[in-house]
Amino acid sequence: QVQLVESGGGLVQAGGSLRLSCAASGRTISSYIVGWFRQAPGKEREFVAGIGRSTYYAESVKGRVTISRDNAKNTVALQMNSLKAEDTAVYYCAAGSPMPSARVRYTDQYDSWGQGTQVTVSS
Description:
By secondary structure, this protein is mostly beta strands. The chain has strands at about 5, 10-15, 20-25, 35-40, 45-50, 55, 65-70, 75-80, 90-95, 110-115, 115-120. Strands 2, 4, 5, 6, 9, 10 and 11 form a 7-stranded mixed β-sheet that branches. The chain starts with a strand and ends with a strand.
């Protein structure tokens, strides 16, 4: 099983940017579908973006967020721009075996999860 560690979270003003990184160890991440999810206090964990052969985005972040993979470094990044207060959450990366594209946004499709990194956007 692949191990995942997120980094790059922090406090940023509304309109600012952050770049989150998900570092994998134990296995090559290129063979996995990797998703970014987030969970705000009192809310369910929700899909943000995913990457396999294609990229996938939640409607709420489309146009503001870019997911990318660096196979040489065994990492997946999430570049977030034009951040809003409602983007405040703990962000998690997750890895799963190849799956139908329609399933990429579901948490139960992923076997490995990182510990999360806090993103706080001040308005």
